[in-house]
Design goal:
Length: 128
């Protein structure tokens, strides 16, 4: 059976999360055929370091489950990532509140990233 479509995109997204989290090349040192066979048989899995955010690792692991039917959809992934982002925002706010003055943070501190709207859309999207 050949797996294509969204479940394969979800698996690839999990690999991308792993790569962004670790800064490493997935399956480094292996030939393409080795990766293909290992992933196809379930004998090759990316290991998440202990220092990676546990919730983020859980999302990535869920995306890379061996059985395609057990992988989440992108709606579920987006929901999980939104919850993770909200918790990180709370932690950042607490650090800013506790150490804002000494770190030069606080109201007006730091530049905004242009082109990103509060809801995550790109700037100018949907505007006439």
């Amino acid at each position: 059976m050949v797996v294509v479509g969204v479940v394969l995109d979800v698996f690839s997204f999990g690999v991308l999360l792993w790569q962004m989290s670790t800064g490493q090349r997935p399956y480094a040192g292996l030939q393409a055929g080795q990766v293909l066979l290992g992933v196809k048989t379930g004998s090759l899995k990316l290991q998440w370091p202990a220092w990676v955010n546990k919730s983020l690792a859980k999302v990535g692991q869920a995306c890379m489950r061996f059985e395609p039917k057990e992988r989440p959809g992108f709606k579920g992934i987006r929901s999980a990532l939104s919850k993770i982002a909200a918790r990180l925002d709370q932690k950042i706010a607490a650090v800013e509140l506790a150490h804002g003055a000494e770190l030069g943070l606080g109201s007006g501190g730091g530049a905004e990233i242009e082109g990103v709207e509060e809801d995550g859309r790109e700037g100018g999207e949907g505007k006439s």
